[in-house]
Amino acid sequence: MGKVSDSISPELRVWIEAQRMFFVATAPTNAEGHINCSPKGGDTFRVLNEREAAYLDLTGSGIETVAHLQENGRVVVMFCAFSGPPRIVRLHGKGDVVYPTDADFARLIGSFPERLGVRAILRIRLSRVADTCGFAVPRFDYVGERDTLDKWCESKGSEALADYRRAKNDRSIDGIPGYRED
């Protein structure tokens, strides 16, 4: 039923790129800390090559994923088929945070459509790719993307977004250092 690999096949890449939503899970090193799972969407995920992927980290009220990646790098991304044949794919690996001031940012950002409110790009070097059945995942119809975050970012402007990140994204809920400005 399930297949495990250390890389993304061309066929799997096509399937991943067709998905409208994915989930990202991370955890702090401290066993008492909070595990985080975040839903993502909006054409923000890219397979860079068979062993590497990345997604846009957009400004939001939390900073858990960034804080956890900076602390220990552990991450898993999960895709589920909500239409078509059942399937779940998990991409396990080590992630890092590529900030707009980092050398790799300019190269990576070109892989994505222009978006307001980009905090960083989260890059994942894959160590395990698990492709499983998804027989119990319900079917859902895709209605469309939400534009709420884009409108909010536009109404704030770049200076207010920077102020927001300083105020709300400085530390994770467990006190781990979060967003950094250079």
Assigned CATH architecture: Roll
Fraction of residues in β-strands = 25-35%
The portion of residues assigned to helices is 10-25%
- 3D shape: globular
> Which secondary-structure class do the elements indicate?
alpha+beta
CATH fold descriptor: Pnp Oxidase, Chain A
Number of helices: 4
Which residues sit in consecutive blocks of at least 5 with pLDDT less than 50? none
The tally of domains stands at 1
Distance between the termini: 47 Å
By CATH reckoning, the class would read Mainly Beta
What would you give as the CATH superfamily? Electron Transport, Fmn-binding Protein, Chain A
Q: What's the overall average pLDDT, rounded?
A: 96
Summarize the main sheet: 8 strands, antiparallel
Number of strands: 8
Based on CA atoms alone, the radius of gyration comes out at: 16 Å
What is the H/E order? Answer: EHEEEEHEEHEH
Describe the secondary-structure layout:
Elements: E1 3-5, H1 10-18, E2 21-26, E3 36-41, E4 45-49, E5 52-58, H2 64-71, E6 74-80, E7 88-98, H3 103-109, E8 118-132, H4 148-168
Antiparallel strand pairs: 1-8, 2-3, 2-6, 4-5, 5-8, 6-7, 7-8
Give a brief rundown of this model.
This protein is an alpha+beta fold and 182 residues long.
Structure, described:
25% of the residues lie in helices and 33% in strands. The protein has 182 residues and is of the alpha+beta class. The protein has a single domain, classed as Roll (Pnp Oxidase, Chain A). Strands 1, 2, 3, 4, 5, 6, 7 and 8 form an 8-stranded antiparallel β-sheet that branches. The longest helix has 21 residues, at 148-168. The model has no long low-confidence stretch (mean pLDDT 96).
